[in-house]
Specification:
Layout lengths: L5 E12 L3 H9 L1 H7 L10 E4 L6 E6 L7 E11 L3 E10 L2 E15 L2 E13 L5 H20 L3
Antiparallel strand pairs: 1-7, 2-3, 3-4, 4-5, 5-6, 6-7
Length: about 150
Amino acid sequence: MTERSVVHSTFVIERLYPAPPSKVFFALSNPDVKRRWFTDPDNPMPGRFELDFRVGGTEVNAGGPKDGPIHVYTATYQDIVPDQRIVYSYDMLFGATRISVSLATIELRAEGKGTRLVLTEQGAFLDGHDTSDTREHGTGVLLDLLGAFLSSGN
């Protein structure tokens, strides 16, 4: 029998972006725009991307190295307040193995001429396949990509 385990963890990441909340929200919610920045910089191989941004809607991102297993992110939007808040639950699979299940909240707060984004994630990391530290790092990289996209004037 395979030994099973779960580690629960919460982390918070903040970023300050030089754009108003409406522009940050648009970059998070518009499929054509999100596809442009929500990528794995180490494995830019085209994968599957679907976004149905509405309460009850789903987002799927799948991709990975051409010689390795596919990483699959599947989210369901639980609560959306335009320009202010997005709450979603998601799981991550590595190949056919579920490595985590999480609840995440993104808060957008006007700050000066920009936006403070506060992301809080509560995760259940399964059977030692992933860790909170690894997820926090990866999420930080994605938020930095969002910042670069917003700073580029797109």
